[in-house]
Structure formats: C-alpha cells, structure tokens
Write a structure and sequence with these properties.
The structure holds 2 protein chains of 2 kinds. By secondary structure, chain A is an alpha/beta fold. Chain A has helices at about 1-5, 15-50, 65-75, 90-95, 100-105, 140-155, 170-185, 205, 230-250, 275-285, 285-295, 300-325; strands at about 80-85, 130-135, 160-165, 190-195, 195-200, 200, 220-225, 250-255. Chain A is built from 12 helices and 8 strands. Chain B has 2 domains: about 1-185, Rossmann fold (3-Layer(aba) Sandwich); about 195-320, 3-Layer(aba) Sandwich (Rossmann fold), CATH 3.40.50.920. Classes of the chains: A alpha/beta, B alpha/beta.
Chain lengths: ~350, ~325
C-alpha cells in the first residue's frame, strides 16, 4: 500500500506546502533547496571519484533521497542527536559536517571527519552530535535508544533521531528496541528511509506487510507514513514526532517513502528494477518538486536557482581538492584509539 | 578479616560504584524487583530505584545495545547478562558496535560499559547453559575481559571494570557465586591487566583463572604430597593479559600447564600456550601442558557431565607429565 501511496505526486502537497512555507519563510525554503542540491552534487561527484579509484570499498549514495535528510534536519535543535546507517553522507552533511571533511573521509584522509579510520560507512562528528555511520543493518537502532535513554537520564531535553532502511525492519534488534523505547518512554524518532529495496530485494519480496507503519502498532507506538520526496511533508511529519519526543518523551516510528536513483552500492547495476520504474521516480524527484514550487510561488527565479547550483558545484569541487591535498593518516598512528586506556604492564 | 560470598563481593562493588558515581546504572533481566537471578543485585533496586536499576525484557541484543548507546553519551552502564550463554545473542552489539566505536570514530566515541554475568558450567544445566565463551571476547581488539576467581578479586576487579573507560566483559563463574572468602571492609581496587600468584612454587607453573584456580589449588596440595612444588598464576584479566607474571613464573619453574574450563581449540589457553612456547622456549624443560573441557557439548547425565570437565586428577597428571614423572 505504502509503495503506491505517493507514486503519482508530481508536485508538493499544496496544503502542506502552504503551511510549511508560511512557517519557515522564503529564506529557509531556499536554504533547504540549497542543501538538497548540495547533497545531490556531492554524491554525483563522490560517485565519479569512486570510479576514478579515489574512493574504495563500499560507497552507498544518497541520490534521490535528499528531501528526507534535509526535511528531517530542519526539525532538530543543535542539542539533538543523530545516528544513521551506512547510506549516511547526506545525514552527515546536513548535521553540519563540512563537505570537505566528508569527502576527505571518503578518500581515507587524515582530515576526514573520522580521521580516515571510518570511510564512507563510518562518518562521525560528536561536536555536531552526529554519532555515525554504522554498517550492520539495524545494529545501531538500539544504540539510538540508548542515546535517548542517556539524554533523558541526564534531563538534556534532547531528541535522538535514528535513520535506517526498510531492510532493517526484520532484524531482531529493531523489534527489541521499539518495545523498550515505547515501554520506557524514550525520546527517539525512528525513521525508516523506505527506498523500496533491501539491497536488491524489493519490499514486497522481503516484508510480509508493505504498510510498514503497522510495525509500530504492536508496541503501542505513534506512527505515520510520509511522502519522503516532498520535503515539506517530511518536515511537517517529523516535526510532530520530534515535538512528541521532546514534550512527552514518546518515541515515534515513521515509514518515509523515498527512492534511491543509484544501485545499493557502487558495484550494483540494479538489475532488479526496470528502467521505467527508475525514470518515473526521477521525474517526480524531490528536487524538481521543490524547484517547481519555488518558481511557481516566485520565491526565487530560475537565475537565482542556477546560481545556487553553481555555488554548490564549486563547494563540492573544492571538497575534492581538499581531500586530494589532505595526507593519509600517519602510519605511526595505526594502533591509536583501539582503547582509551591500555594500562597493561606489558607492551 | 571478614568473609563474604562471591555474589556479595560483586554486589558491594556495584553498590559502592553507584553510590560514588550517579552515571553508573544497572540494567538486565531480573536485576531489579527479583533482585537478580543469582542475587548479585540484591537490595540495589530498593536503594537506587527505577531510574538506576532497570529490569529489561528478555532481549539481550536490544538491552546490550541500549547500554552501548548510553555509554556513548557518557553514562557508565553495568549490563547484566543472566548468563554468557545468552550473551551470544548480543555478540553483534558487543563486537560490531562497542568494540569499534572508538577506533572508527578516530577517538571521538568511547564506550565505558561493563557487560557482566555468569559464565561456565553450573552443574546439570545441559549443553546450552554450560559454556565458557571468554575466547569470543578475548579475540576482539577494543574489548577487555576480566574473570575473577575469588571474592576479593571479584570486588576489586569489578570496581576497576566499572571505572574503566573501555568496554569490559566481566565473566563470573556460576559455581563460584556461593563461595566465600576474605574481603576487607575498606575500599580497594585491583588494576586492569595485573595477574596474581595464587600459590608460590618452584617445579611447575599452572596458569588458571576463574573456577579453575580452585581446582589448581587442590591439585597443588596433592602434588605437594609427592614433593612437587606448583606455582599457580591467575591472570585475572584475560585481555590485556599480564604476560610478565606468566613468563616470570615459567623462568623460575621451566614448566607450564594451562588449565581452563573452556574447550581447548582456538581458546584463551591455546593463545597463552602459544605465547609461552614462543617467548619462553629457551626456558622450557617440557612442552606446555593443557587441561580443558572435553571437545563436546556438555552432557546432562550426572555420571557423564563430570567426565567432560577438568578434574583435580587431570591436572595432577598433566603436571606430572610436564615434570616427566
């Protein structure tokens, strides 16, 4: 059901758009557009750098899902926490990690946000309250609840936002965590970035139900299904969940419908879906929809948007230069950070 | 000096650390209202309340992961696994998250958590509840592993584990919970990575930890009657291992026997044996001896189970063999 729900939307939901535009104002709307373009251009360049051999290993691009990270981030305060899985370049950048530091990390360089020790799947910056960057499907979902537990324990008034893919929902820890988060009133927002595929297995082939928000019913948790290609719908839907977490310490489970335009990782030709399916998704893409809204509402003209794109391209180009110029980590640091304290009397 | 039970020593360690540091909390199955499946947490719920002593559903991976996330933000969780057999369910969280955060984040995210509970055989519990799985954790860089053999060590080591900034796996022998020993009233700590000579001797070194220390001590008594003087080294911390205390003993005795409750293949004992064989080769007068659980799942039948585990007799004959007697 959820798969088809937003399929034919070619514009932003007009009622939501009117409300959110009024709430956020022109400047913020343009900021969101700029962030979405930045994520798109960054990933396009990362993909090319991968093909040139500058980035190795696994690299999961966020192209197509930009409205989700950008809409979600707009709901958070600086004191809130974010934790994600391995398709997290977008979440890291909107959290405030610079494109330079993310690109350098992809290049395995010392100026990367994880000092070159993490790579594409393991981006961290605790000064931005961004806690990864995790590579075991669903494995960070209890971590998120633990962070929410700690912030509540310390009366921080902070919300933890946890991103994961639709493929995570069949892991045991997902269910274990939702049960405890609901029972213990943890201020956490659980976000399914439902891009229809668990790697190469489509939702209807990996899940007994496709209306994923039903998963929350068994845990008496608030839930919603949101059009993830509509940045304002994402903002408004997640805002409710964040408010619920902040004001009532109640967690929320969200099924946010999105679509990734590229394969699962760089080595995936995505033969499990048709060209038509991909083309259809791209035609109603999150950036085009916001662009149409901005132009129609005369929030900005085409020239302004083009200038933003040009700026962003420059920022991304600069990040590649920065990553190129940054050295690899010093081999003498190889064993650093295995332990905080290794006070063995030996070695 | 007063004598208290092993479980009381652990209880005092947790109690003292909770009183000292409000960031310490205890979480696990039956730890609160029930006072702990093995009564280690007796009285703590009454004293510290729901906020700091937390009963969980039976979801080891989930609550281990919640503890890990809480540790990321600076809390000091003590996560009780009812037994380490069940901790296998949380192995992903421990190996892939707790042991990796510091390195992958370039030192940004430490994980000061203690995961503790019962390990080893309990007696007639069957194969799924009678395993010594310390090798699973000792194998992983990023983790520390402690296994006390006496109430004194249990208390001092657990206090150290709770204050340690890294993830510590703390395995308590199920059989030892009811054992008693001297524990001073005043506060003390036992450092991470420092072993202890449990009996001094000159003819052969036995390396043993946790429940096997008691077996080794009994074997040493038997051997003493034959004029064989055994030195017993208890590393106490498995990782980081106190290699010096082992090497120094072997330099003196020129012989070593490793006694472990676990299976012998790919085990902690195998690694210690390898270290001694390689580093102390010139000092050894005999091959390093090994005593282990038989290489089978633990049987239930009352006559079979004892045949599967190390016995005092096994240890005596391994030492005699190392001494060419």
């Amino acid at each position: 059901m959820s798969l088809e729900k937003f399929k034919n939307s070619t514009v932003l939901d007009p009622k939501i758009a009117k409300r959110v535009h009024k709430e956020l104002g022109d400047e913020k709307v343009i900021d969101m557009y700029r962030e979405m373009i930045l994520l798109r251009r960054f990933e396009e360049v990362a993909g090319r750098q991968y093909q040139m051999g500058k980035i190795k290993g696994f690299c999961h691009l966020y192209i197509g899902q930009e409205a989700l990270a950008v809409g979600a981030k707009a709901t958070l305060e600086d004191r809130d926490y974010t934790i994600s899985a391995y398709r997290e370049h977008g979440h890291a950048i909107v959290a405030g990690i610079t494109p330079n530091a993310v690109m350098a990390e992809l290049f395995g360089k010392v100026d990367g946000c994880s000092g070159g020790r993490g790579g594409s799947m393991h981006l961290f910056d605790t000064t931005k309250n961004f806690y990864g960057g995790w590579g075991i499907v669903g494995g960070h979902i209890p971590t998120a609840a633990g962070m929410a537990f700690a912030s509540k324990y310390n009366n921080e008034d902070a919300v933890t936002m946890c991103y994961f893919g639709d493929g995570s929902l069949h892991q045991g820890v997902f269910h274990e965590t939702l049960n405890m988060a609901a029972m213990w009133d943890l201020p956490c927002v659980f976000i399914t970035e439902n891009n229809h595929y668990a790697m190469g297995t489509s939702l209807d082939r990996h899940s007994a139900i496709t209306d994923l928000q039903k998963k929350a019913v068994g845990y008496d948790m608030d839930h919603d299904c949101i059009d993830g290609q509509d940045v304002f719908a994402v903002y408004e839907g997640i805002k409710k969940a964040v408010d619920r977490a902040r004001k009532k310490n109640r967690p929320t489970f969200l099924d946010i419908i999105t679509y990734r335009y590229r394969g699962h990782s760089m080595s995936d030709p995505a033969k499990y879906r048709t060209k038509d399916e991909l083309n259809d998704a791209q035609e109603v893409g999150p950036i085009i929809r916001l662009q149409n809204f901005i132009l129609k509402q005369k929030i900005a003209d085409k020239e302004t948007l083009d200038a933003i794109d040009k700026d962003v391209k420059k920022i991304v180009k600069e990040s590649v230069k920065f990553a190129e110029a940054s050295p690899f980590p010093d081999p003498s640091t190889l064993t650093d950070h295995t332990y905080v304290e290794w006070n063995s009397p030996i070695d | 000096m007063r004598e208290i039970l092993f479980r009381q020593a652990l209880n005092e360690a947790i109690d003292e650390e909770m009183a000292r540091d409000k960031d310490v909390f205890l979480m696990g199955e039956e730890v609160a209202e029930y006072n702990g499946a093995y009564k280690v947490s007796q009285g703590l719920w009454d004293k510290y309340g729901d906020k700091r002593v937390i009963d969980t559903p039976i979801a080891e991976a989930g609550f281990a992961g919640i503890g890990i996330g809480a540790a990321f933000l600076g809390l000091k969780p003590v996560i009780e696994m009812m037994t380490f057999n069940f901790c296998v369910l949380a192995l992903d969280q421990i190996v892939n998250t707790a042991a990796k955060s510091l390195y992958m984040s370039n030192g940004q995210i430490s994980c000061p958590i203690v995961i503790r509970g019962a390990g080893g055989a309990g007696g007639a519990l069957g194969a799924q509840h009678s395993q010594s799985l310390e090798a699973q954790y000792a194998h992983i860089p990023g983790l520390k592993v402690m296994m006390p053999s006496t109430p004194y060590d249990a208390k001092g080591m657990l206090k150290t584990a709770i204050r340690d900034p890294d993830p510590v796996i703390f395995i308590e022998s199920e059989v030892l919970y009811g054992s008693s020993g001297e524990v001073p009233e005043e506060e003390y700590m036992i450092p991470m990575g420092v072993g202890d000579i449990k009996r001094e001797g000159t003819d052969c070194t036995i390396v043993a930890w946790s429940r096997m220390v008691g077996y080794a001590l009994k074997a040493a008594e038997v051997l003493a009657e034959d004029g064989i003087s055994v030195e017993i080294v208890d590393p106490r911390t498995i990782r980081p291992l106190d290699k010096d205390i082992i090497y120094n003993s072997v330099r003196k005795t020129n012989r070593a026997v490793i006694v472990e409750e676990a299976w012998g293949f790919a085990s902690v004992g195998a690694s210690i044996s390898e270290l001694i064989s390689r580093e102390m080769f010139d000092h050894l007068d005999a091959p390093v001896g090994r005593v282990n659980q038989r290489d089978i799942p633990t049987p239930y039948a009352f006559n079979l189970e004892p045949l599967a585990y190390p016995t005092v007799e096994n240890i005596v004959s391994a030492v005699r063999k190392a001494c060419y007697l």
